[in-house]
Design brief:
mainly alpha, 2 strands, two-stranded antiparallel sheet, 52% helix, single chain, Four Helix Bundle (Hemerythrin (Met), subunit A), 2 domains, 288 residues, Serine Threonine Protein Phosphatase 5, Tetratricopeptide repeat
């Protein structure tokens, strides 16, 4: 039976990995993008960068940029209270939450802030989680440590979801075919080795044979660790699955989420035709 702390750590790690995946490839242009007038963001000052803020914010609340949202998440996770409110002290190397001045700095700051938060969470005892926080927590003095941890996780989850939504919004307004440069010969397998897997993730089945002809690897993985064959099998895209098999895709590779091979994905996602095809090839010794 898992403990309360183990459940909280599992939820925290799940939310973090989702956010970490969603900030991959973030650019400075996107980080500072202001889609509307009156956005809150982070701005250059005489001493660095600072986030827009007010004791009494405008109503309705301003739209906040990715720079503002990520800075806010960093602050929530890394601030001293995620240790002191549960009776612990920040470590010497925890540092204070920065205001990142670029997308690269933001991703680095997010990773450090999460490392700090996770280390603190892992150090809390059951007594820390059960005990009312007391005077240090001000209006929340009667709330126990678990309630506070859940509040921090709620902040991580809902602001992380906002980051993903803003990235989707930004991408949608600048929609371009991500595979066109490769098909035109401007992007090579050395530049984007996992592009064929990315095409499968986007369910752009029609470009997969063309990418394969250009030398993009059949067994490369998406950032989530799955191959094109996993995705073809799991979605029941039988023509693509046949193409991948016939061109030598490795069907024994397993993914990190289910630890399942390609047949396992077809079975898990109830793609009976794909599963029958893969099983038949196994029985016939055709190289699965």
């Amino acid at each position: 039976m898992t403990t309360t702390q183990e459940n909280l750590l599992d939820l925290s790690d799940f939310a973090w990995q989702r956010l970490r995946d969603r900030v991959a490839g973030l650019t400075d242009e996107e980080y500072f993008w202001e889609p509307f007038d009156g956005c809150w963001t982070v701005r250059k000052t005489d001493s660095g960068f600072a986030a827009d803020w007010a004791w009494i914010p405008p109503e309705p609340a301003p739209f906040t940029t990715l720079a503002w949202r990520i800075t806010h998440i960093v602050d929530i996770l890394q601030e001293d209270r995620t240790a002191t409110w549960l009776g612990h002290q920040p470590a010497d190397d925890d540092g204070q939450p920065p205001v990142p001045a670029s997308a690269a700095e933001a991703v680095t700051a997010l990773q450090h802030a999460y490392d700090v938060w996770r280390r603190r969470l892992a150090a809390f005892s059951q007594d820390d989680l059960d005990r009312p926080m007391g005077e240090i927590a001000g209006p929340w003095a009667d709330h126990d440590g678990t309630a506070f941890v859940l509040h921090i996780l709620d902040e991580l989850i809902h602001h992380g979801a906002e980051v993903g939504s803003v990235r989707d919004f930004y991408r949608g307004l600048r929609a371009e075919d991500p595979f066109a440069p490769a098909l035109a010969g401007d992007v090579t397998p050395a530049d984007r080795p996992a592009l064929l897997a990315e095409a499968a993730a986007a369910q752009r089945w029609e470009v997969i044979p063309r990418l394969a002809d250009l030398g993009f690897g059949l067994n490369e993985r998406t950032p989530n660790g799955v191959t094109a064959a996993h995705l073809a099998a799991g979605t029941g895209s039988l023509d693509t699955l046949r193409f991948l098999v016939e061109h030598g895709a490795d069907l024994s590779l397993t993914d990190p989420r289910f630890n399942a091979d390609v047949l396992g994905w077809a079975t898990w996602f109830k793609q009976s035709e794909a599963a029958q095809y893969l099983t038949a090839r196994t029985h016939s010794g055709s190289g699965v």
